[in-house]
Every structure is written in structure tokens, then in C-alpha cells.
Amino acid sequence: MTFSSYARAFRCHSRTVIRGHVVKACRSVRGALSELLVLALYKEVSLSSTEYVLREKVTVAKKLLKYTDDPISEIYTWLIFRDQSQFLKVFKQYTGMTPKQFKSREAMTAL
Questions:
Q1: How far is the C-alpha of 22 from the C-alpha of 44, rounded, in Å?
Q2: For residues 49, 68, 66 and 20, what is the CA-based torsion angle, rounded to 10 degrees?
Q3: Which residue in 10, 51, 62, 93 could disulfide with 47, CB within 3.0 to 4.6 Å?
Q4: Rounded-to-integer distance, Cα 21 and Cα 59, Å
């Protein structure tokens, strides 16, 4: 069974699920994310489910940092990171900079 067929079973378009809505999709099926679904996800995007979710969380964090004035403490809490230290580590791992550096860089490019 492919990830696309799971998406159809849960009445989601597979592109919607794959493009940034995995966390929402997982919540909507309330624990139905089985081992087969995780394997299908890995096969389609070549990432573990953890890596994929972290990457998507960083994508959302970048948008929040760029377009809102929300403090980092609200952003990492909203994105369900354990604490600010974990958020900073993951954000830097995926972007090469801290959230503060990212926000400063985005502010400079907006001018």
C-alpha cells in the first residue's frame, strides 16, 4: 500500500499531505499512522517520518519568523518542541542559522 492510497483512504489529497500538512493529517486520523504508513512516507519522500516532520516544522517556523512578530517562545511552543534549546538546535540544523539570525536577515532583505 502506498502513501497515496492511505491519503485517499483518509480523504486527503496526497500532495496536501506531503506538502506541509503531515502533522495536521496525522492528528486528523488520531493514531492511525501505522508502520505501513511510515514506510510508505519514507518511500515517497526519502526521509524518516521524524525528519520530515522536523523539516516541515522548520518551514512553518521560518514563515512565522518572517511574517509575524511572535516571540520565539511562542513559536517553539506552538510547534510542539520540547523546549527552546531543542528548537534552536533543530532550526540551526536545517537552516544553518539561529531563529534570531534568520529574522534579522529577513528584516534586512525586506528593506
A1: 13
A2: 20
A3: 51
A4: 11
How would you class 103 by CB atoms within 10 Å of its CB: exposed for 0-12, middle for 13-18, buried for 19 or more? middle
Of residues 76 and 109, more confidence is placed in 76
CA distances from 76 to 8, 39, 45, 53, 99 (A): 31, 28, 25, 14, 10
**What are the structural domain ranges in the chain?**
3-46, 51-110
CATH 1.10.10.60 assigned to domain 51-110? The reply is yes
Q: Among 70, 59, 47, which Cα is nearest to 94's?
A: 59
- CA distance readout (Å), 49 to 36, 55, 74, 106: 12, 10, 24, 29
Separation of alpha carbons 28 and 47, rounded Å: 21
Q: Which three cell numbers stand for residue 102?
A: 534568520
